[in-house]
## 1
Amino acid sequence: MVNLEKIKEVVRKSKTVLFDHDLDGYVVKTDGQTFNIPWTNSDFIKDLKTCEVDEYESDLIFGKDKTRNIVSLEVYDDEVLLYKVDGSLEKRPMIYWILAPIAYDKDFKRLEGDQHYKYIKTYDDRIEFVKAANFYKKRDVDIFRIWNEKEAAMIYYGITMFKGLKVKDVSVLSFDIESSGLVRDDTSKVFLITNTFRNSNGNVIKRHFRVDHYKDDDVEMIRDWCKWVVEQDPTIITGHNIFGFDLDYLRHCCKKQNYELELGKDNNVATFSRFSSSFRVDGTTAWDYFKVQIPGRHIVDTMFLSVKYDIGRSFPSWGLKPIIDHLGLVKDGRQFYDASKIKNDWYDLKKREDIVSYGIGDSDDSLALYDLMIPSIFYFTQSVPKPFQIMAQSATGAQLNTLMIRSYLQDNHSIPKASERTHVGGGISFGPTGILKNVLKIDIISMYPSIIRSKKLFSKEKDPNKNYLKMVDYFTEERFKNKRLYKETGDEYYNDLQASQKIAINSSYGLTGTSGLNYNDFSVANEITSTGRQILIDSLLWATSKNIGELFPDYSNEFDSTEPLITKGVYNFLPGPTDTDSISFYKQDYSHFSEEEQTKLIEEINSFMPKGIEYEHDGYFNTIIVLKAKNYILQQGDKVKMKGSSLRDMKKEPALKEFIDELIKDLLATSGANCVDIYHKYIREAINIQDITRWCTKKSVTKPVLKPTRTNEQKIRDAIGDKIVQEGDKVYLYSAIDGMKQDSKKGELVFLKSGEPKMIENRVLKLKEDWQDDEDQVHYVTRVYKTLEIFKNVIDTGDFLKYHLKSNHKLLENL
């Protein structure tokens, strides 16, 4: 007898329910349970499908407030305004708060627990709150507060956005502008604003605003555009590089008539920060931009999204069209246009229509990027108490830190203070150089989160409720479940959910080892990385029968204290690249691993691993060319991937990128038999450049360039000369010879014995457009050789003449 009431109770508590059927009747699948229900109970099945599944039950993960369908939040007149997807508005009183380690006055209330910030004081008036916060700040008093008012409200109440919604349920406007150029001056003009708007029902509306329809008055056009945006009422406004260019350019042009961009709900104006912010691209590059807020809406810049999305740094550049092309998203019939010519070509009526078509393609393309890249961030926003706009820009470790703060503060519990940084040992990364054949690569599934869970790691001092460990457990289990559901159903929603959960678990280590976060703990970070290193050391011993010192003489075990899992080698394979969570190996005779061998080896090494730590197949490669640690080329059938900064430097001259590609193709096809000829081909081009564009480097105009204090920045500033540029602009530069100058050493001018000044060529940088066949040939010959040296561990560079040396310059004539 089927207990229908019991099934209904299980379904109510379940997070996911799948309805299916077989020959005998209905099949209901919940979390880990399957129920078979006879065909005669069809009414019960209908009733069951109406049961509300509370997927947001966990207060830790989703906050105590379960309000659904929130698409935006604003704080105005000491009220929290919650905008819903259906257009309705809900209000709450705004509670401002400050935490402190001691009660600075009688209004501070004691929180539970004994973490550093034990006292809280709340305010219902913003003026009083700001006055108090500034009072403490000026006196360098130890307090903790969240500066962003929306975020502070979300933490206090336990609110998150988008509960109960999917990406397609939230309206989005993608826009793009075409203008008279990049420069903001009296001649700046917006010619065109193209728009692709998708409402919450999925209907797409396209509307384009052209200055020639407004008697050449671009401000009147922008006013009309703002009115249309308010009428459509998008929750999200997106576009490519709209923080760095479009929005600020629109604002600049509107200054001609003292108009401000009325883009927010109720015609509220967009506000621009007075101070620049920095978006970190990588370890050496950051973009300065000015934050923009549009009341009731979120701004998502797809250029920032692209950086977050491109983890492997495979994109050829951060421009919209190269990314769209790289991802295979170019639409049939897409109109392209040279943006540098729009300033003049707009006034050619025939060309103008091509420019309009080009702009329409841009707004479509940025929406395509948004749809591809936003789902994981969107669904993670359902857990993290931060506005969506901030989620699309901020670091994931900080996002988890905010989740942890909420988990304690919503329970009236004290929170800790960020710990000072101490050194944390990193992961193992090395690769025996050479051309390797038939290489099996395996990696640990979610290595750091798996270590956290298997060893039950958390900060005992900061996290008495073990919320960190519970959080990692939850996101990991949910990811496994949603990966399974995606495989079973093919529903992309489950794939997007597991991707958002992957963000959380992969950021769990970053939370422990990042300065400035309340819940960091460098001792926990060290235990995570040392355990990871030990696993790889043991795995390499298993595969090669050699200890880490034999394989990697430079390895330092300063932080290693974990007991080994494997103490004796099993095989005599040779090691390939090893990097943080993966090892690779191949047979000494380069012979093939059969599929059965591969499966057996993975099963065998997993038998040595502790519970919760598991290797999985990460690729079988015909060839791996290892140049150095973290820099290698992978060939898998017809597919070739490059990994490493030396190979993927986006700032490298286009001709030298081609040079690298040709060398790689030859190494894979002939083991380098034609590399000398390829080298000579590019040396010949370097001494007879016909197209300087192929030899230019792209530089960003930064604050140090605009106000240089170092030689490198000064050279760029000199090259720009009188050209009007501003921070964030891109310039293309080449190396040139500009006459002669007197040599100097250590700041002193050099003279010949005759007393005459010693003269040398004056090597400078120049803008691409200033090229007059005056390029520095020796510089470019040197650049070709330096690029060749990237391959010095797999190519015998002794076979290549060093034409850049002065003694060999005459030999260039023979080429």
## 2
Amino acid sequence: MPELPIIRSREHLLSAARKGRRIVISSPPGSGKSTKVPQLLLDSGRIKGKIAVLEPRRLAARMLAERVAKERGGAAGGEVGYRVRFEDRTGKSTRIIFETEGILLRELVDDPSLTSYSAVILDEFHERHLHGDMALAVCMALQEKLRPDLLLIAMSATLDEKTLAAHMAPCETVLASGTVFPVRQLYCDEDTAKLPPWDAAAKTCAALLPGTENGHALVFMPGAYEIGRTVSALSAMPALSGFRVMPLHGDMPPGEQDAALAPSSARKIIVATNIAETSLTIEGVTAIIDNGLAKVARYDGARGINTLFTEKIPAPSAAQRAGRAGRTAPGVCVRLWTERENPYRPLGLEPEILRLDLSEALLTLKACGLEGFHSLGWLDRPEPEAVERAEKLLANLGATDGAGKLTETGREMSGYPLHPRYSRMMVEAKKRNCTYECAAIAAVAQGRGIWQDDGRAAGRFQGRDGFRSDFKSVIMALDFSRSCSFDPHSCRQAGIRHTAAAEACKAARRLARDAKPSGKIEEAARCFLLAFPDRVAAALPGASGRYQLPGGRRAALDVKSDAAGAPVICAGEALERSGKGGTDITLSFATEIKEEWLQAAFPAAMSRISRPALDRDTLTPVTEILTNYLDITVRREISTAAKGKPSSDLIAEEFISGRERFQHWDDEVEEWLARVEFLSQACPDFGISPLGEEDLKLVMADVCDGAKSVSEARGRQILPVLQNWFGWDKNQLIEKYAPTRLQLPGAHRKARIRYPKGREPYLEAKIQDLFPLNETPKIAAGRVPLVIHILAPSMRPVQVTKDLRSFWVESYPKLKPQLSRRYPKHKWL
């Protein structure tokens, strides 16, 4: 096997370490950075303490530690070990520790000078995780004051080394270039690009791989769900029967993860998340099938929600994925998007410090004795609004005082490897003797979820005490999983993911710190409430499963939640989705809470309001007493209301809003309004004004005045109220100059005059009824001639005119022969 590029740069690296305390290493994937740099430093004899290698992912930390330990003839936990959240495989003799970035920051709380470490290596720094940026900033600050001897190295395959080296100056840069074989770039066609990602990947692999002689294939998918669908689709392809199809993601048992990465003479198709993009090297890969998507966490500032989006990867990530096929031999990369789309890929992804909630990071900084973000130098400084939001959350949780200093509660919170919300819950749990229950809740919430895909097994673990909560299901499911020793079949039958349950139980044990079950689920829910005061939600009346959140937001409770039906809940998860119908929020991981808990925990946020309202069933006026938490109503009480104007106004509003309609607001009323509008335009000197929108609202209020219910108001007469609005004199003008009937000389009955809105008034009359008339009838004091619809004896129209004289002279002589033949029994002049 050819010598790794980083080995060829050994002297440059060690020379840089002798000359200075800051180094940037840039080299391509598979060049040996992650595995060889810590070994070279240790074997040089110049490093007296421990070497921390910070990884952005738990899976990478574990697998790299095991690989390096094996290379050195040992096992993880000896000379080489790893630390990730809730798992520590290190010992007294450990010198190289692979750990996630957040672990080092938590070590700073107990050891602000990092006295046990001689070197800190930030691996895959280009990913710009928030904890990675923090670790860099804190270590640089340590070097400048307490630890000038600390060696700090940042490594990456796609790093802008000049910008980073300038930020870390004085700094030495080590470039370890390697041999890169050519990779043929292919794009899928339009039809394939439209397929679901797993079907597109299966179709592409079936067309590509049987024609290649050797090498493994690596398929990139954004998450575990897509990986599962892709594995199924690939396994169903007869053309791929000679390949082993293997998933790779962080939710798998360690043995299965190791098998996916292990060297193999049998050809494999590994379906992985972007962990295989940089963190781990899979030997023998010569074909890449890239879905072009990845999970990206973002913070929605408008709603205060961290949401995980599936997004297109930027162009540099696509290039790095393709490069995985050219490490050991020429390869091929097929992108599951069209070549026409390729120029529109994003150019980059902003660092997490610019797109995530910063409260946990801020709590960690304060616990380390730092005032906050402003006390450090940052490669990218966080947005002031995000810092302010984090400060506000810590204050609301009681972690900081009015001056922003850490309180005793905040210091206790910083001791937990959790988001500050769950840390606050754990601090309260100690006081209420429900540490075990809260530890289980936090462990599941911080993990990947214990339920199978449909999540509907939760209900079988509900107790019979009537308390509605997802927490009972979670705790009982963990107890069940433990009792069957996490047997895959038993757990699967119960709807539980055994690996996730095992991981959650391990985490809960660490968090509980030997506390025993107390059975106090309601007390645990009270602790949870203190962690999520902004996620309290009250059921919306008449809207099943819909809840009102503070700030005017509405949400739906997940249909699988065991908190369904509770009038007031508190939710640990609020997932925002955008769709064709707009944006919606789905609440999950929720529990019922009680009004007295809110009153005890947040007395200043509680209020009572008494106001007139309508009973929803009878639509009669009542007095409504609202008990509110912030701006949401958690309880309504109803009492009989005294008759009066507020009650009438409430009744009127039902009609004004259009929710109710008056029975007698009919065609006659609409015609009367049209007559008023006509006369106001035809005779403005009469002083009659048409009714505008606000006028009509006042009329409706007059109709409802004194009504005892909506039902009573609905049957009231409308026209008398309208006529009363104008008074006797103007009503006389309306009747005289905008009449509804007109007596024609030849008719037995008066003809009806119509006033269509926006058109001229007209009447319909049989031609015989019009024989005595030579002039067109006029209304509006003789100012407006009527439009005459002239009808045959059959009542069919024969002509429309506004000039009867011209009709008799010009049109009638031509029509008469036709009409007389068709209607011989009628008289014709």
## 3
Amino acid sequence: MHGALAQANIPGGGDTGPDVTLTDHGSTVVLDNGVITATLVKTNARVASILYQGFQMVATDRQVYFSMDGGSSYEQPSNCVYSIKTQTPDMIDISLKHFYTTQPHKFDIDIHYVLRRGNTGLYVYAILDHPASYGATSVGEWRMVWWMPHDSTNFLMERIYVDALRNWEMPSVYDLSQAQPTSIAEIIRLTTGVRANQYDCKYEYSVAYSAIGTYGHASNVNNVGAWLVFGSQEFFNDGPTKQDLAPASGIIHVHFGRNHYNGSGIGVAAGESWSKIFGPYLLYLNSDPQGADALWADAQAQVAAQAGAWPYPWLTDNPLYPLAGDRGAVSGRLAVTDALKPDLTGAGAWVGVAQPDLGSNWQFDAKHYQYWVRADADGSFTIPNVRPGSYTLYAFVNGAVGEYSQTDVSVAAGDTTALGDVVWNVFHPGNSIAWEIGIPDRDSTEFRHGSDYFEPFLYQQFSSEFSGPLEYTVGVSDWSTDWNYAQTSSIEPGTSWKWRVHFNLDSAPAGDATLTVALAGSDHARMYVYVNDETRAVANFYPENGGGNALIREGSHAKYSLSYVTIPAAALNVGANTITLVQGSTGHVMYDYLNLELP
């Protein structure tokens, strides 16, 4: 068969070929469309085998499976009830449904596998259902895991692909077996192979799913690839900035609850009727004699194909999955007005609608669906395929601190809610900006280590890179090299790691100034701010939205927070000044952006 590149614009990778067949073997069921053959285990909803191009695409010892949480709360679907939802020559959709009895989580879990004519992949969707008769329950980690095929020495697909920074030949099965443990259980030190003397950890491949739409593995040896491809991300939690585990050496994850990096989790009360569909998404397989990079490009093209076909017209008769005619849209134009940055526009802004519970926000909402798009160059946006209901509209854009929100945006089936110009007057506590460090983008990658933040144990280098306090001089220093992506409490035993910002003021401010502190993430942090006197802090505070341990988990952000610190006019000098920042607790902060605004 010729490579899948020729089919990249067809959802699923193709639409012609033999009829789709189902063969029931008692404990397993086999779906076959002449392109792939998938063997599914009835009792536990696992994928035991996928045959494609003469290759086994699943590690048959560990398979493809679903699970929830860990430790004493770890659970996989069990005692599933098998049924056929749809069976035609064009498509088969089977259900493997786990019913709650005495398991740790009071959910029914319905796993569906769909094989369609000509497709080079298997669609998957899962439904969590909590009837009103069930007691209170919650879940944090809710995921699917796909173990990659291998022999005793090598993986079938030797390369891993996440994004432009992280795509390389990964350690082989042999390399992983020879690796040394470290002080952190998830991190090993490789001693052989192409990545010898480097660390390997599943967290170094974490990514915001919305930034890529696909990830996986491919081979220059066998010329095949295995990918997760998302046509929509409406069912994921915590919005478009949220990241989690994706692929890693020999594995592909999808975390529906994206519980790492301070994910929100799902909590359901006793007596509450709640359900949600996760997916469908595609376990996509491709082949091309041009090799792994071509396969990655094809997987990326498949993202566009899936998005264009969403919502899939073939998933019918499911009230949790309204088809296109039963959904609505929201349109408008984001007009950003920033008195201190007049060139700022809504171009490329994230604009979305969400339904967080009262008192929460979109960064911490896992129970509902969220719909996000990028605005066009003129700020125009259309958010398609939204379930009917009442939403809050949110928007944020690179260059602006904070976000816009508008409540009571109503969406009706078959209609577009036209908002016209959505005017965001960006708040500033002052009338001028004395200086700024970074770019407001909810990430720390514009700073030092922005291109290698994912390397395990990177923080062990800080003490050799910064001997003593970090000294940053406005107008002289370069934040891409002189401002680190993360500040820990100390890099020398017994001392606080002081970060000093040196700057000049031509005249005394007419009143109190304001230090804007936008954080891309924080964990166990307490910030102290000093102005020209390091013996007495003008402010100390615990950042909001802290948690997630992004530094140890090789991330560049966790959850965004914004603080405004009042700088008394009497504390500032005409001429030279120094603001000192200390992270005084056991954790860390990751800066997004700082500025000093004058009255």
